[in-house]
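Records of this kind hold a single protein each, on a pair of labelled lines. With that in mind, the following record should read easily:
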Amino acid sequence: MHFGKNIRTILFVSGVITLAFYSCKRSSDRSVYFISPVEGGKVTIGETIILKTDAEPGKFDSIVYSIDSKYIVSRTDTQGVQYTIEALPFGSRLLTAKIYAGADSSEVTTNMQLLPAKAPVQYSYKVINTYPHDTTSYTQGLEYHDGFLYESDGLRGESSLRKVDLKTGRVLKKTDISAPVFAEGITVIRDKIIMLTYQEGVGFVYDKNTFAKIGEFPYKTGNGEGWGLAYDGVHILNTDGTNTIYLLNKDTYQVADALEVYDANGSVDSLNELEYIDGKIYANIYLKNEIAIIDPKTGAVEAYINLAGILPTEDYVEGVTDVLNGIAWDAKGKRLFVTGKKWNKLFEIKIM
């Protein structure tokens, strides 16, 4: 998310949800509930849960339990069923008990929040080199290719695409993007630069060498916003400020799949600028001095890099300097760069 945006607030409403036991031929008004697991309870991969309802003995022939419509087990009694959670996506998973009584059947449901079992590793950093950064750039996307930085700069009426000299911070090439477009993240695929826009629902394709715009494409994420981009060699990775990373087709730029991101405490929201580094996804978390390191196969956050204090207090300008945002990777030199919106410095860091 970025300055000037309406901050997306996700309101989690918790409560007791009573799920009635319906039947084509109900003989009583009694309802059946899931006793275990508890509605909305947190469960980790590898954990063993108990599947159990409070169905009355003698009132049914069998109960069939399933998770996300996948059959788990069938029972003819009211005993709880032990089930070890394995190889399921993180997030909300639906559990169903289908209860059979003669020719009749009914269902009761509950859900659980499936989370990674391991808490993320906590990393710090060491500054290896410090470089100048143009304070007019409200950094949205940052890439390092062929010895140069490529940077997208946001805000309506101030947006641009830039080619920057790393050592001096000098802008070597720039194309301005007219209002009302709010430029967002970029990624480089061979001789093209792909750019998102914030709420305009359109992406731009630029020639990497000339900065000429050579194409446009429509796109739509879950909330209709565009934030960060990266390229993993197969798909374009795209954030929209939620905990979802969308996988876009590299040729059509349309959504092919999605990955939800969680750590051991729950969903990790406000994912912003991205970089794909040695098989992992690195993501800025908007409004935090943190970068999440994410497993692209599962969406689990494996580690956090705490970058608190990286920009010295004396370099902050009230009302100008904004949040950490911008990750670039020099694959050949194995160098990691970070900066922020309207920061006066860009840092090469080593993870500690």
